[in-house]
Amino acid sequence: MKKVFPLILAALLLFGCAEQKSTSAQELQDSVQTYNRLLSEGYRSLNMTPLARIATPQRTTKAYHHMAALGEGRIRMDTLLDEITFLDSKILADNQNKAEIRTREQWTCNFYNIDTNEKVSDNIITYENVYHLVLEAGRWLVDDISIRKWSETNKKGGLSFFERPADQPKGKAPVKSK
pTM of the predicted model, to two decimals? Predict the structure, then answer.
């Protein structure tokens, strides 16, 4: 019994204390996919409320403000995520409740006049993004997005859909990727 007790104690210490579930890359990817789906649906329906299920209040508010600004110009955006490639993901070493996931995405963005439903612009936009996620109540939420690179092709009209890259100072137009 004296020899068995230390083995049991060691097993409990090794395996019993590992109660916290480890996060898989798939969990982070699922959060980003859900965020993008709800964001697209929010722009289409002019309702960002469902986005709050997968994004922090600050991130949801930011998306709402962009949608509202378009709406004030009597424009509705309809977006479609054509392709997404997950480049890497990581849980931050200094805070296990924060993660980053880097993507390359191609979106089709169509802009419509709210009053006439006429298409006024359509663009193909390619991004390289870093999604910043936070773990809240056991769920990974999108907290912020940093655009690292982007390029845009205007097929009709000239409206753009982008946020200022993180390294660009305010007051200057963002620089397109070459």
Answer: 0.76
Distances, alpha carbon 62 to alpha carbons 19, 25, 68, 150, in Å: 35, 26, 10, 19
CATH number of the domain located at residue range(s) 23-156 in this protein: 3.10.450.50
d(CA 124, CA 150): 11
Angle, helices 25-45/57-72, rounded to nearest 10 degrees: 30
Half-sphere exposure of 96 (CA within 13 A, CB side): 6
pLDDT tens-digit profile, the chain (178 residues): 556 444 444 444 444 443 444 668 999 999 999 999 999 999 999 999 999 999 999 999 999 999 999 999 999 999 999 999 999 999 988 889 999 999 999 999 999 999 999 999 889 999 999 999 999 999 999 999 999 998 888 766 665 555 444 555 544 444 444 4
